[in-house]
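Prompt: May I have another protein with tokenized structure?
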Amino acid sequence: MGYDSITTELLRIEEAGLYRKLRRVESDQGPMLRLDGRDVINFSSNNYLGLANHPSLCKAAKEAIDRYGCGSGASRLISGNMTLHEELEEKISELKGTEAALVFNSGFQANTGILSTLVGEGDVIFSDALNHASVIDGCRLSRAKVVVYGHCDVDELEQGLKDAPSNAQNLIVTESLFSMDGDEAPLADIVRLAEKHGAMVMVDEAHATGVYEPSGAGLVAKLGLGDRVPIQMGTLGKALGGFGAYVAGSKALRELLINRCRSFIFTTSLPPAVMAMGMAAVDLVMREPERRQALWNNCERLRSGLKELGYSLGDSQSQILPLMIGDATQCMKLSEDLLQRGLFAQGIRPPTVPPGTSRLRITLMATHTREQIDLALRAFEEVAREMRVEDRG
């Protein structure tokens, strides 16, 4: 792509109302942000439990640097497999109730690597229509046939399983909590269909890890499906407040990924500070269920308030509240109007979401105060009033 074509493509993006720019955060990742020089209430973070700036994580990171230094030096199959990596994996397997776990450098690397390791040409992947981009890319890299079933449509999924070649390895992949809609996958039905038709199940728990009871292990554990979901992926960011990702499952799964997974093998391993933060976060998640309760209390307060104001939140069942707008330009205007009132709620547009479904992706944190939520509701009430005036005009 030459310079002229790059410029032309940027113009097309701008004309379509899809131009993106980076905003600068000048503070820690708390319920309040210093954003582009102004203080705003933060409703655009995946820091669901408020751990990203927790003193325990900061202390653990500092101590790890003092003892182990800053970098790991190599990939884990060379000289980068440090004590902290294995200790973190033991903690994750304890949290998830599995035989073993394996840490990855990011959720994107985990999903692309796991999928392309487990299936290949001649196999079939069944993927929910609203799965994350990393799942989509992992499906493509696998070279397996990909069957995209309608969002949470178990009838369409079952028909696909019936039509699959009898000699193929079938793999169903779904998020447990969908990152842009905030709704839960019908995991019990999916597992039942997998067992009926001899398919594997992989569940992406990125946005559910740390959030669901009884121990913060995720939606799979909440539903009592841990023994029936052989591949559970999640992240060390988001509710766990740090960085990186994991897969939890059997010892055989771990060994296969170590030997075959390209996104694990061919990358320098995560640094000591990240591993130490991860361990501190898992400890907090298991030890402090009151954080989850505070998160759910905040969710209910904001959700009910927005619905009273007439906003549509789709089928959200979680800390992710998609305030549906539809038009991309109108969505971004609403986001900017709220920002002028001291509230940061990021607009989400295609290609992140399907055309015509642009929305504000509002996310709650356990550390939001009652006063901050009430201030947010007043801001939403003001912009709703203005939107109605404009509609009448």
About this structure: Residues 19-48+289-392 form a domain with the Aspartate Aminotransferase, domain 1 fold (CATH 3.90.1150.10). Residues 389-393 have pLDDT under 50 and may be disordered. The CA atoms of residues 205 and 234 lie 5 Å apart.
